[in-house]
Amino acid sequence: MQCVKRMVSPGVHTFARHIREQRQEIITAWSHDVEALPSAEGLSTSLLRNDVGEMLDALAEALDAAAPATSPLRRLAIKHTEARYREGYDVREVVYEYHALRRILLVGYYGSHALAKGSAAPLFAVGRAIDDAVADAVDAYVRQRDQAREAFIGMLGHDLRLPLQSTMISASLLLEEPGGPPARIAGVAAKIVRSVARMSELISDILDFARGRLGGGIPIVRKPTDLRAVVVRIIDEIAALHPDRDIRCLAAEAPGDLIGEWDEARVEQVVANLADNAIKHGRDPVIVEPVDLGDTVRLEVRNHGTIPDDLLAHLFDAFTPACESARHGRLGLGLYIVREIARAHGGWVSATSTDDLTTVSVVLPKHELRARLPPRA
Known about the structure:
The protein has about 375 residues and is an alpha+beta fold. It folds into two domains: about 220 residues, Globin-like; about 140 residues, Histidine kinase-like ATPase, C-terminal domain (Heat Shock Protein 90). The strands form two sheets. It has a five-stranded mixed beta sheet with strand order 2-4-5-7-6, covered by helices on one side. The protein has a two-stranded antiparallel sheet with strand order 1-3. Helix 1 packs antiparallel against helix 4, helix 7 packs antiparallel against helix 8 and helix 8 crosses helix 13.
């Protein structure tokens, strides 16, 4: 295959020479501009300027080579952004730095080269190079933020659960004493076990909320999962906890193929949260039914009772419904977590409420939908 060399406009070469000749002046002007950013306060001159000199050198080389998209500039942009993240910059401040650099470069070049004013080639070349750098900078910032968030959530979950585990073990040992503990101690120990179990559920909800709200989404691990078996198992357990309620599971007799590639533990959570919501906020019967739709499955939970329109529109938002959730000692995160789990699987949620019948549905694709973005040139 014959390699075709990309032609470079003379104006672009002139711009590259301008960057090299005015390198120090550009760095100084840029430093004066970005030192006003809130996160720049207290930074030394060397930390403020960071890799900007190297980035200008890389930009000049990229312009001469007519290959800004594959130049070292993008690697330096990532390095610069990672350093800014550690220094406490937010993403808007990082993007501003690149916009300031673009402005200083273009104003300086077109202001000092009269013949350049009729040529747009340098403008497009520099704009493309800076745009690529900004895109890589934002990617790097998001990656750093996501890693920090996951590390924080992991440590928080560990630190919160460790004392609870100790308390649970201690209370369980009291209940397992040979001959049994005295009645008063047994009652207190049983209360401790129930309270610790409830606290563990709340911690899980809070951590899932943090993952969903902070942008990373709830993590999932896919494997072949039988929705029919999951629904039967979870609803049997829930029905045993509520013997006074009319809870009907239609999974065993549901027709079709209900096997897909899902995170089984998360699907269990969806089933449990939907049923729990219907039991706490609706009237009997509570009916749970999975439906095969071909490439997707729909899980429906129906109950008697009507949800007001103003509440229905926000049913899957966090902390909704606040008053009812507070009444039951909950945070109102159950349906929000259902929505986030569905989204993590490429699915969606919906709810309808008419004529004293409320239906909450979750649709999950049976297989992962792999959306492919075109690579940047």
